């Protein structure tokens, strides 16, 4: 299970992502969408970590942002 972080912490991770990882959020969301069809958040975070060497906190932020965007499209 992923830890829930405050919205401010999430935003901060997203803002620092390009400098910390060399790629912006759009790149990481595309990688996640093009990757295997993993359903569980923890599996998606692990896949980003293991395959793309993305630090855990940033991988979790990408997965969380993907979830927020998916949920926003449904409503």
Give a structural overview.
The protein is mainly α and 75 residues long. It has one domain (7-74). It is 75% helix and 0% strand. The protein is built from four helices and no strands. It has helices spanning 7-21, 25-34, 41-52, 56-74. The model has no long low-confidence stretch (mean pLDDT 92).
Distinct helical segment count: 4
The helicity comes to over 70%
Task: Give the total of domains.
Answer: 1
Given helix and strand content, the structural type is mainly alpha
Low-confidence stretches: none
What is the assembly state of the chains in this entry?
A: single chain
Q: What is the succession of H and E elements?
A: HHHH
**Tally of extended strands?**
0
Kindly provide the radius of gyration, computed on alpha-carbon positions and rounded to a whole number of angstroms: 12 Å
Major beta-sheet overview? none
- Overall morphology: globular
Distance between the termini: 25 Å
Work out the strand percent.
under 5%
Mean pLDDT: 92
Secondary structure topology:
Layout: H1 7-21, H2 25-34, H3 41-52, H4 56-74
Helix pairs in contact: 1-4, 2-4, 3-4
Protein name: DUF4287 domain-containing protein
InterPro entries: DUF4287 (IPR025629)
